[in-house]
Design a protein that fits this description.
The protein is of the alpha/beta class and 430 residues long. Helix content is 41%, strand content 13%. The strands form two sheets. A seven-stranded parallel sheet has the order 3-2-1-4-5-6-7, with helices on both faces. Strands 10-9-8-11-12-13 form a six-stranded parallel sheet, with helices on both faces. Helix 4 links the parallel strand 4 (130-133) and strand 5.
Length: 430
């Protein structure tokens, strides 16, 4: 790649990952960032700008952005987020942060290119000290904006990001992903992701900081989930009294392992339980029909049910006697098993990815070989056979583990420490 005083060549891979795009160092002047980039009247000691595609939906990236934004505000620092907007903007503003709407969701090379100038203006106008990015397409824009302004660049690596198998396409995709390893610090959401960064991208261990995602212990608190909420949800799902409930939350997609779960329930051979798959098919109608056929073929129509969505996951967890993850690919972190443990539920999950770090096998839950339906059935049998004292012991150990290692407060404080570390390197002690 040729570099001159006027031009920096950078490759941007579009959605089909086959088009190369060269970004000039100077982007065109395309207006201010959402018309809002005016200098602050009173500058805070530190200003952090988080950048992500959008603020809609219930994903961990969006939720974490709002949580960190609130922690930054509570610290007395300037807290800003740039995204294409969404339903969580209101939550962000309630947390005391400012939102700037930019088309950062787009993977179009021209839009990515134009966003460089917009972010540059925003950084300068708001006196941003650190830009923290959480997704690849907007990261390319933010990276070059930070290069121009001399602003610190921090990334969070939220997943493994597939590269495919064809050599050329894989090489291009790996380069596209690599922007997330260019930060002054790289936050990995698990030890598993940290290892992936080193192995796949050659990321320096000196730059990586492991910060597990955190659970909001005010929301996922058993003492605050009323019986009325649990009863209401149980009635909506038409679950009969007196049956133990086994729940697998997660969108309906093949790698989440719903088929493995159904086959494990069949191997378990019990009709005196009720099993619920909770998650939208997100348009994957064929896969949903496949699961429905598998349920019918195994004679489980009265045992296993599928529900599209749940607006009250704390109540859903409290209704469950066992919470399961059956993902056939390793989860980067695995929010479900941590949320369930925060509410004292026994959990069962595959022995790979982030689950290995969040479950103490035999103490707070059970780990089984990924994809092994017989082993999953045995783990479910052990969980369902717990007596009252055994369940209480599991619950206490799980809650203690989550409070110590996986709380929202711990995640926020560790993230603030990364910001402080970067600022100190740049001569700003806070």
């Amino acid at each position: 790649m040729v570099r001159t005083a006027k031009t920096i060549g950078a490759t941007i891979i579009t959605q089909n990952h086959t088009i190369l795009y060269s970004m000039a160092k100077r982007a065109p002047d395309i207006g201010s960032a959402g018309g809002e980039a005016t200098p602050a009247t009173q500058s805070p000691p530190v200003t952090i700008l988080q950048v992500l595609p959008a603020l809609g939906g219930s994903g961990g990236v969006e939720r974490g952005t709002v949580e960190i934004a609130g922690c930054i505000t509570a610290q007395g620092w300037g807290s800003m987020v740039a995204s294409n907007g969404g339903e969580r903007v209101y939550q962000l503003q309630r947390a005391g942060a400012d939102h700037f709407q930019l088309p950062l969701h787009s993977k179009n090379p021209l839009t990515i290119y134009a966003n460089i100038s917009k972010l540059e203006k925003l950084i300068k106008a708001q006196g941003v000290d650190i830009v923290h990015v959480r997704s690849r397409a907007p990261a390319w824009s933010a990276y070059y904006a930070c290069q121009r302004t001399g602003t610190a660049f921090v990334t969070t690596f939220h997943g493994t990001y597939s590269v495919g198998s064809a050599p050329l396409a894989a090489g291009l995709k790996r380069f596209y992903n690599s922007v997330m390893t260019r930060g002054d610090r790289i936050i990995a959401i698990s030890k598993f992701i940290a290892g992936h960064l080193k192995q796949m991208y050659g990321a320096s261990g000196d730059k990586i900081r492991i910060i597990h995602r955190g659970v909001d212990l005010d929301s996922f608190n058993a003492s605050l989930v009323s019986a009325e909420r649990v009863v209401k949800l149980s009635q909506a799902w038409r679950l009969e009294d007196g049956y133990p409930v086994v729940m697998l939350p997660g969108r309906l997609t093949r790698w989440k392992g719903q088929a493995v779960f159904i086959e494990a329930i069949a191997a378990l051979g019990r009709s005196d339980i009720r099993c619920v798959l909770v998650g939208s098919d997100q348009g994957r109608k064929g896969y949903r029909k496949e699961l429905e056929r598998l349920i019918e073929q195994n004679g489980l129509s009265s045992v296993v049910r599928i529900f599209d969505h749940c607006d009250d996951m704390p109540a859903a967890y409290m209704m469950a006697d066992v919470v399961v993850s059956a993902s056939t690919d390793p989860e980067a972190f695995g929010r479900v098993v941590v949320e369930a443990q925060a509410l004292g539920r026994p959990v069962v999950a595959p022995d790979h990815g982030g689950a290995c770090e969040t479950i103490i096998n035999g103490q707070t839950g059970w780990l089984f070989p990924p994809g092994d339906k017989a082993a999953l059935a045995e783990a479910l049998r052990a969980a369902l056979d717990l007596d009252e004292d055994g369940r209480k012991a599991f619950s206490e150990r799980a809650l203690a583990s989550v409070r110590e290692h996986f709380s929202k407060d711990a995640m926020c404080e560790k993230t603030l420490n990364v910001y402080r570390e970067v600022l100190r390197e740049r001569g700003k002690d806070v």
